[in-house]
Write a structure and sequence with these properties.
The complex is a heterodimer of chains A (about 475) and B (about 250). Chain A is α/β, with parallel strands linked by helices. Chain A has helices at about 1-10, 35-45, 50-65, 100-110, 120, 140-145, 155-160, 160-165, 180-185, 425-435, 440-450, 455, 460-475; strands at about 25-30, 85-90, 125-130, 135, 150, 190-195, 205-210, 220-225, 230-240, 245-250, 250-255, 260-270, 280-290, 300-305, 310-315, 315-320, 325-335, 340-350, 355-365, 370-375, 385-395, 400-410, 415-425. Chain A has 13 helices and 23 strands. In chain A, the strands form three sheets. In chain A, strands 5, 6, 8, 10, 11, 13, 15, 16, 18, 20 and 22 form an eleven-stranded mixed sheet that branches. Chain A has a ten-stranded mixed sheet with strand order 4-3-7-9-12-14-17-19-21-23. The chains are: A alpha/beta (about 475), B alpha/beta (about 250).
Chain lengths: ~475, ~250
Amino acid sequence: MADSDKIIDEVTQSEYKYGFVSNIEADQVPKGLNEDIIRMISEKKNEPEWLLEYRLEAFHIWQQMEEPDWAHVKYPKIDFQDIVYFSAPKKKKYNSLDEVDPEMLETFNKLGISLEEQKKLTGVAVDAVMDSVSVKTTFQETLQEKGIIFCSFSEAVQNHPELVKKYLGSVVPKGDNYFAALNSAVFTDGSFCYIPEGVTTPVELSTYFRINAANTGQFERTLIIGDENSYVSYLEGCTAPIRDENQLHAAVVEIVALKDAEVKYSTVQNWYPGDKNGKGGIYNFVTKRGLAKGSNSKISWTQVETGSAVTWKYPSCVLMGDNSQGEFYSVAVTNNHQQADTGTKMIHIGRNTKSTVISKGISSGYSNNSYRGLVKMTPKAANARNFSQCDSLLLGDKCGAHTFPYIHTDNKSSIVEHEATTSKISEEQLFYLQQRGIDEENAISLIVNGYAKEVLNKLPMEFAVEAQKLLSISLEGSVG
Amino acid sequence: MLTIKGLKVSIDDKQIIKGFDLEVKEGEIHAIMGPNGTGKSTLAEVIAGKEDFKVEEGEIYFDGKNLLEMDVEERAREGLFLGFQYPVAIPGVSMTNFMRTSVNEIRKHKGLDPLPANKFMALMAEKKKLIGIDDKMTKRSVNQGFSGGEKKKNEIFQMAMLDPRLSILDETDSGLDIDALKVVAHGVNKLRRKDNATVLITHYQRLLDYIVPDKVHVMYDGRIVRSGDKELAKELESKGYEWLRKESATS
């Protein structure tokens, strides 16, 4: 027992490593949310009239909606008038890296993101979003040769309005839910990605999001379209400075996969989780959804969630095309006073559709970690199959793990399987590893990484290493 | 190498070890025998540093160092190895990853650099051959889905990998068929050197048909009631533990 007490005590001392603040001058709109603010954002971004209309409609829908309270999380009411909805690093257009604020480059260097050509070596194209504006998209030319469009959302609005107009809101409608409606009204920037027919991306596409300015919300919008028979692997990483007050992050990610296309979306989410007493941290209220529109298309979500004070996130797949597939692989770690309510929705519409859900929750400290998942088999989804496995691992005895599976089946030929386990790191496992010369902290790290291996293996190599480190850091300090 | 004097250990206020003395020298193999529930496994775990127990009295010195002041992993890094009676499974952690971590932690303690991947793999191959286990076992997760025999062989394999000064094998022979028992005995004999030592904790005499101990101790009710050479084990086998009970009662 002494060991687990130690773990609880010491684990709570781990610190967030990305908590620095950069001194970058920001161009902000005033605090608060109303039609004028939305018009101001739209104007600053030089948007076409239809997009302003889209935002205003979303705003009106949002005004009629109520903040949801069904998730297994608790947080004080958010004052939406106390948030800055647009904040951009001041110097606006960057034609080359030389023009980028050195402080900002330093920020990205600290995060281990080199915007420079070194990235070529690792084969990752990066779009970096600081506060609300996309700073730099690397690797443009290589991608252009193949006809791949990978740019900031704002650029896409200017240069590819027809694609944006066609697909924006086609997977997550304006009024889908409270936070998606808010995002649709005030989204600032994000990434846009279009893979043409028959093209496989030669590199992994990657976006880094960072909230820097105080009292700022980040509302990014990501839209990924895989045209017929294309393949893309897309990575997303997130960090934020340490601040005492909570900051809101309400993003929307939409994915469309056409016939025979495959989109693989991987996230390592490491927003500031708050301090060990639960002060500060990011509220991460995100809507992520993929539409497997064409037959034989496939959408795969892999997420490693270690950050945020409160997480509310259900990357989902709508399996519309016959034989389409959806996957969800998740590791969610909560420590101290973090709360996570995360999971997925697999909506089977097409025939012979197949989905796989592997969720690994790890709770420590005083945290609460919930899996919430919906599997829905519609009447047309003949011979559809789902397999779900939800495992929870507890460290210490003051944290909680919860599983909320929802299964709706409207046809007789579909098969749904659900498995769930809850376990603790046992004294025996720790003693065994320690007897082989491995200290308690490394022993926990080994056990946790082993537990999450099935999911970590789904990440691209470079990300997997980062994710493993992150898991260890998140649970660091387990030894005195 | 190992000196235990006047050791008294309790768990939940119940005394399990009631005044235990032992002296193990370099190059020796000792066997500690005795009926179930007599404190043999507790002794092994106390030496290894498990925290569930309260050491009331006595001392344990290992190579001149006071073991009772050291953490579990420190004892291990100093060259103390415990072969577990019930090795626990660690899902998702490959034997290779586990052993690499372990070997390198011990090297770090000795001031050595981590073993490069190719040398580590060569070491694995060498020890697998020595113990006579196949690649399939080392590719799996630690003890995950291993049969009883495989688990015990795996303990001996780890012993070979870590090359400890002192190995305490807790009931390594229990539950083994004769072939597995031979593999385990063969491993222990192969690893025997002038500068290391082994303590075998066992219930049965049959392991001692394959490993010849220098000393045999009979443990009963938390203390050693008799010590001798290998002949003592045979005497015990023929007379049974009932004989001890009478001895213990009259002494």
